[in-house]
Automatic annotation (TrEMBL):
Protein name as catalogued: ABC transporter ATP-binding protein
Organism: Devosia nitrariae
Compartments, record wording: Periplasm
Family: Belongs to the bacterial solute-binding protein 1 family.
Signal peptide from the UniProt entry: 1-28
Keywords linked to the UniProt accession: ATP-binding, Nucleotide-binding, Periplasm, Signal
Length: 430
């Protein structure tokens, strides 16, 4: 069987060409062809093309072809496809932006297919609720995850930082991040931590830790000037202590793909991401990764959430909803396909799939399950999906935070500017 080489894959995906799984031969003309579009990384893409091949072998009446881009380009391409009326049949979607795409009519409800092409009897109720908006099911969870700090265990050990000895991975504070980051830098010459000044994921956790909410029930922004200033001041203090790379270096990595993360390139000993990305990150490293929660304030009010890492959804432009939902069903239920997918997209929502996977797990996948076990009771309740405009608010936060990293604007002025723009964006989108 021919394999999809990395060079061939990148060149094809960059051109947005439809990719057949691993060069399978042409199918009969009467076979229904559907497209699956996702954002990925090398490990995820390899796994997904393999399950597409498995599905195509099992379903002689359906041909699935895959399309993939990196996260930074995915939603830009999806927006273009929506405007052109040529979205893929099945699309990957995130909880943070799902509501916006539902409002735009880009995603179709799945309720009419439940009990026929979709079997949801083994799917966790919490996962179904997360994919339900206004009483209709729009999305199937393809893995649960939470925010995770990934750290290089070798560099931590060289600095004398070990779990249980001044380091609690499930209860450390921003002061600990600074202390540990400085210790790692002094012992190894590597910055101890990425700088999260422009990291909206970390900021969202911090908002919850302060007892606030990003978005109020009426769709307005729920963050105060004091919270924004405090968050950026905390990271400035960590940066000024020498625990992070210099501000300009961190500014250049905002929105970077996984291969460019500080922990992957050796620029830092700690990077922050979604827990489902642990497997892909470990694939790119020789040193062993450790897992911790995002840091907290001394009050230890939960700020992280457990949510679907991604969904698979039925697009408005599907050429055959029955064929597409048949594929979506297999993607979350078929034992052979889910064994290949593993935990790369997060903890599966199907209880039988989880039970089948656990005995086979080792390395980063086993650590992912251990991490989920250890964060139980330490996260806050999943809030409703963000309102329309939330994605633009996040992009605005990142852009203004870059100015903070470059010392182009004071923290107070930057915070005021961000809040003015966030409120205007949400008003315009409502």
């Amino acid at each position: 069987m021919s394999r999809l080489t990395r060079r061939r894959f990148i060149g094809t995906a960059a051109g947005a060409a439809t990719l057949a799984a691993f060069g399978r031969p042409a199918f009969a003309q009467d076979r229904t062809r559907i497209r699956h579009f996702w954002w990925g990384n090398p490990d995820r893409d390899e796994r997904t093309f393999r399950v597409i091949e498995i599905f195509n072998q099992k379903h002689p009446d359906i041909e699935v072809v895959g399309e993939t881009l990196g996260f930074a380009d995915y939603f830009t391409r999806l927006t273009t496809q929506i405007a052109g009326g040529n979205m893929a049949d099945a699309i990957q979607m995130g909880y943070g932006v799902m509501f916006e795409y539902i409002q735009r009519g880009a995603i179709l409800p799945l309720d009419d297919h439940v009990g026929s092409t979709l079997d949801l009897t083994q799917i966790d109720e919490s996962a179904l609720q997360a994919g339900t908006v206004d009483g209709k099911l729009y999305a199937l969870s393809i893995g649960a995850n939470s925010h995770m700090a990934m750290y290089n265990t070798r560099l931590y050990e060289e600095a004398g930082i070990t779990s249980g000895d001044g380091f609690d991975p499930y209860g450390w504070t921003y002061d600990d991040v600074k202390r540990i980051g400085v210790a790692v830098k002094e012992a190894t010459g590597v910055a101890g931590t990425d700088d999260n000044t422009a990291d909206y994921q970390n900021f969202s956790d911090f908002v919850g830790q302060k007892g606030a909410e990003l978005y109020k029930a009426d769709g307005t922004y729920g963050v105060t000037q004091e919270i924004v200033e405090e968050y950026w001041t905390i990271w400035k203090d960590i940066r000024d202590a020498g625990a992070t790379p210099p501000g300009p270096a961190s500014a250049g990595l905002v929105g970077a793909e996984m291969a460019q993360w500080g922990i992957i390139t050796g620029q830092s000993a700690t990077s922050y991401a979604w827990s489902n990305q642990l497997v892909g990150a470990q694939e790119l490293m020789q040193d062993t990764l450790g897992a911790a929660m995002y840091p907290n304030t001394p009050e230890m009010i939960p700020g992280s959430i457990v949510q679907p890492s991604q969904f698979i959804c039925l697009s408005r432009d599907t050429v055959d909803a029955q064929a597409t939902t048949t594929y979506m069903d297999a993607f979350v239920n078929d034992p052979e396909m889910t064994a290949v997918l593993g935990l790369e997209r997060g903890i599966p929502a199907n209880s039988q799939v989880r039970e089948a996977l656990v005995p086979t797990l080792e390395g980063a996948q086993a650590l992912s399950v251990e991490f989920f076990d250890n964060i139980q009771g330490k996260t806050m309740a999943l809030p409703p999906p963000p309102p329309s405009g939330a994605n633009e608010v996040e992009q605005t936060f990142e852009r203004i935070a870059v100015g903070v990293l470059l010392d182009q604007v004071s923290i107070a002025d930057a915070a005021a500017d961000f809040l003015r723009q966030a409120e205007a964006i949400l008003r315009r989108a409502s």
